[in-house]
TrEMBL record:
Name of this protein: F-box domain-containing protein
Pfam families: F-box-like (PF12937)
Superkingdom: Eukaryota
Cross-referenced Gene3D superfamilies: 1.20.1280.50
Record-annotated F-box domain positions: 15-63
InterPro entries from the UniProt entry: F-box-like_dom_sf, F-box_dom
The organism of origin for this protein: Rhizophagus irregularis
């Protein structure tokens, strides 16, 4: 037997708080991935907000410094 829901259930699109975080906070979170550079390529695939944050030039500049890679802007 199917039980009835006593109150309406509302599904809010993009209801995750992670999606609403400011870009600066996302970049700080992404900094924790620096020990595993392959994960940097995956964060951009989570959602549009993460893709936008992962595309931030300051984020990539910090990553290249951390990994001791040449600055791509200087090439």
């Amino acid at each position: 037997m199917i039980s009835k829901v006593s109150k309406p259930v509302y599904i809010v699109e993009n209801s995750s708080i992670v999606i609403t975080l400011p870009q600066e906070i996302l970049c700080e979170i992404f900094n924790y991935l620096r020990e595993h550079p392959v994960h940097f390529t995956r964060v951009a695939q989570v959602c549009r907000a993460w893709n936008f944050a992962a595309d931030n030039h300051l984020f990539w500049r910090q990553l290249t410094k951390t990994l001791q890679l040449p600055d791509p802007c200087a090439i």
